[in-house]
Design brief:
single chain; alpha/beta; 5-stranded mixed beta sheet; 2 helices
């Protein structure tokens, strides 16, 4: 039997369900037994706390969500700013300015 060796470095995977007032977040990190669910209010202060939390996980972070109306824009702009978050890779599906 062949030995399976992953070629990618372990990463924190973050899926976000976008809504008007709050976003539902699902996080899976290397070594965790279970995924973690969070509710992220759609405010800049909460985005900063969320980014600090992700940065503290000490792994590359990959974030994905589907753009919903214009509700995704504040979070998308925050996560795309390289100096404001620890996000390694950011993917969105749908219109993005």
């Amino acid at each position: 039997m062949s030995l399976v060796q992953p070629t990618q470095t372990p990463a924190v995977l973050v899926a976000i369900d976008i809504a008007k007032l709050r976003h539902d977040v699902l996080i899976e990190a290397p070594g965790w037994k279970n995924r973690k669910r969070l509710i992220l209010p759609n405010t800049a202060a909460e985005f900063r706390l969320f980014a600090d939390y992700l940065h503290g996980l000490k792994h590359p972070v990959r974030v994905v969500f589907e753009a919903t109306g214009n509700y995704h824009r504040p979070l998308a702009h925050f996560l795309r700013a390289k100096d404001s978050s620890g996000v390694d890779r950011f993917l969105s599906r749908g219109p993005y300015p």
